[in-house]
Amino acid sequence: MVRGALLALALAFCLGANAQPAKSKPAGPAWGELTVEQQEILAPLKPEWQSLDPDSRRRWIGVAKRYPKMTPKGQERVQKRMQKWASLTPEQRKQARENYRKLAKQRAEEREKLREQWKEYLALPPEERSKHAPPPGKAPAPEKSRK
Predict the structure, then answer these.
(1) Are 135 and 91 in contact (CB under 8 A)?
(2) pLDDT tens figures, 61-76
(3) Cα 17 to Cα 15: distance, rounded to the nearest angstrom
(4) Which of 107, 118, 104 is CA-nearest to residue 147?
(5) Measuring CA to CA, which residue among 122, 126, 127 is closest to residue 144?
(6) What mean pLDDT do residues 116-130 have?
């Protein structure tokens, strides 16, 4: 009985000594591992690429793969959005993600109502818009509406 316990303890010790630490989730490709084309497309993200989580990197690489098939107008829109995203603070990005999740959970009718309200807001003169805008630093400046 003691012999069995000692054998189990020795086995556990040997297995523990040879065990390797758990591998962490790969960070995804480093900036230098991207193709030249991907680097050109994703250039606005270069300064922060190393700090992006693996899922974000995969999503941006997916955008870069779809990019050549986009219309010039679509490519321009992606570049502007990427530049805007790169300029946001981590807190602003977190808020944008939360807003997106909330919007995605709403019914189609509610989303359409918000689109209409947004169009009305964009139609206002700049001085009227400023009355309704959030304080500086709380949200990114509005752009043209999505269709």
Answers:
(1) no
(2) 999 999 999 999 999 9
(3) 5
(4) 118
(5) 122
(6) 86
DSSP string, 83-128: HHHHHS-HHHHHHHHHHHHHHHHS-HHHHHHHHHHHHHHHHS-HHH
pLDDT of residue 56: 87
- Both structure tokens of 84: 């805007």
Token pair in block for residue 78: 């992606």
Q: pTM score, two decimals?
A: 0.58
> Rounded to whole angstroms, what are the CA distances from 88 to 67, 91, 93, 104, 122?
22, 8, 6, 21, 22
Q: Which residues contact 95 (CB under 8 A, 6 or more apart)?
A: 139
Q: Give the separation between CA 104 and CA 100, rounded to whole angstroms.
A: 6
Q: How many residues does the chain have?
A: 147
Q: Per-domain residue ranges for the chain?
A: 29-87
